[in-house]
Specification:
Blueprint lengths: L4 H8 L7 E4 L9 H6 L1 H6 L3 E4 L13 E2 L2 E2 L2 H16 L4 H10 L4 E3 L3 H9 L25 E4 L5 H12 L3 E6 L2 H14 L5 E5 L5 H10 L5 E4 L14 H29 L2 E6 L12 H20 L5 E8 L5 H6 L1 H7 L3 H12 L11 H11 L11 E4 L13
Parallel strand pairs: 1-2, 2-5, 6-7, 6-9, 7-8, 9-10, 10-11, 11-12
Antiparallel strand pairs: 3-4
């Protein structure tokens, strides 16, 4: 939770019996009055413990300049400076003070993310006999070891990021592209970032039936299939000929149909599998200058939802991810003229694009590839076993409002 109120409402529900709350940055040196007044006593009365997930108040106490997704106000900056002056006068490390302050409340279970303790234990830096923080001691660990993942269109951009995320989780990942040199380059890139990664590469044009057969010959089975392959452009509806519509449909839709049709029967036989389609916001809010693209992304949603129903009860889940603007080479190339004209960095230009074209975006920036890839890694994992037939919006990962001009 990033507010106190939902926690209080949960405690008021007679049928709710929470073990604890993860309260993001609402019990810190900068912001704790509301929690003290309205939550802590109630939590203690019901034996509910609290973990603070943002003890540094969005990082401002650790040297950042923002709080609650906005640039800190003069009043906040003044308060931070007061805290720092007192800390300096007493020789206190402000980070240590923040942690100690939060832990002092008896309702608090921990202020350090559980993943930290789990990693410490796995590295044998914390004894197996040492108890970890109660209730939240075991972090959500994505383990894809002994799983084989096939990611189409994976030599760059989101596909490459997904391949890396799956490799980090222990999967053996098959990287696929049309150009052998680019496939090798992608494999080298992942190995550099994930030492010991289990990888294989296949050169094939999955936008064609022949390319799909080449992949099937090389990799006849899979536990995880990520249908990421896709192309896009901006073209007026009246200027797009039949051949362009056909090309987009073959690459963006039929490629995923072919792969799913081939790989899911074996998943059903083994009683476990994951199929993930990379759709787009444009699949539900089609932009005027990308109608052919939007139609194919809508088709991805229809295929994924229908296939999930077809495979109901088999242990094979089928879901779609809808990325919004994501900072990839493709987006950077699309904005290169605007970047040159403005003199801004490519990332700043991309963020400016979101603020202008996506005024309803909550985080007001482009997503990072890693943010989309992490969502895919979760959906690909055993932890998502109850999620199927879903369309997961990853518009800058946290947006909940449709943009006026989706990309």
């Amino acid at each position: 939770m990033n507010k106190v109120e939902p926690c209080e409402l949960t405690l008021d529900l007679s049928e709710a019996q929470p073990d604890g709350f993860l309260l993001a940055g609402r019990y810190t040196l900068l912001d704790h009055d509301r929690a003290l007044q309205r939550l802590m006593d109630a939590a203690l009365a019901q034996n509910v413990e609290i973990v603070v997930g943002g003890p540094y108040s969005s990082g401002i106490l650790a040297g950042g300049a923002h709080i609650e997704y906005q640039k800190a106000s003069p009043a906040i900056i003044s308060k931070v400076e007061q805290i720092k002056r007192i800390a300096a006068a007493h020789g206190v490390d402000i980070k240590a003070a923040v942690l100690q302050f939060s832990l002092a409340n008896p309702a608090m279970a921990a202020v350090i993310p559980a993943a930290f303790w789990q990693a410490m234990r796995e590295a044998k830096l914390v004894s197996e006999r040492a108890p970890l923080p109660p209730h939240w001691s075991l972090s959500m660990k994505i383990d894809l070891s002994e799983k084989l993942a096939i990611v189409s269109g994976s030599t760059a951009g989101i596909g490459l990021g997904i391949s890396q995320a799956l490799a980090e989780a222990g999967a053996t990942v098959v990287v696929i592209g049309r150009d052998t040199a680019k496939v090798e380059q992608a494999l080298a890139s992942i190995r550099q970032r994930v030492p010991g990664a289990q990888l294989r590469g296949v050169t094939a044009d999955l936008g064609t039936a022949e390319g799909a057969e080449r992949l099937f010959d090389a990799e006849p089975r899979a536990d995880i299939l990520v249908n990421n392959l896709g192309i896009f452009n901006t073209v007026d509806f009246f200027d797009a000929p039949d051949s362009e519509w056909t090309r987009f449909y073959e690459v963006n839709v039929i490629s995923g149909v072919r792969l799913s049709r081939h790989y899911t029967p074996q998943m059903v036989k083994q009683g476990w599998g994951r199929v993930i389609f990379l759709s787009s916001e444009s699949g539900v809010a089609t932009p005027a200058d990308m109608i052919n693209y939007g139609v194919t992304k809508s088709a991805n949603l229809a295929v994924s939802h229908g296939l999930a129903k077809r495979l109901a009860g088999t242990g094979v889940t089928v879901n779609a991810i809808l990325p919004g603007p994501t900072f990839t080479d493709g987006l950077e190339d699309m904005l290169k003229d605007a970047t040159a004209e403005s003199g801004r960095s490519a990332r700043d230009e991309a963020d400016a694009f979101v603020r202008k074209a996506r005024p309803t975006s909550i985080i007001q920036r482009v997503a990072d590839v890693e943010e989309v890839a992490n969502l895919v890694a979760y959906i690909a994992s055993p932890l998502s076993s109850a999620t199927t037939g879903a369309a997961r919006l990853s518009t800058a990962v946290s947006s909940t409002a449709w943009p006026s001009e989706p990309y």
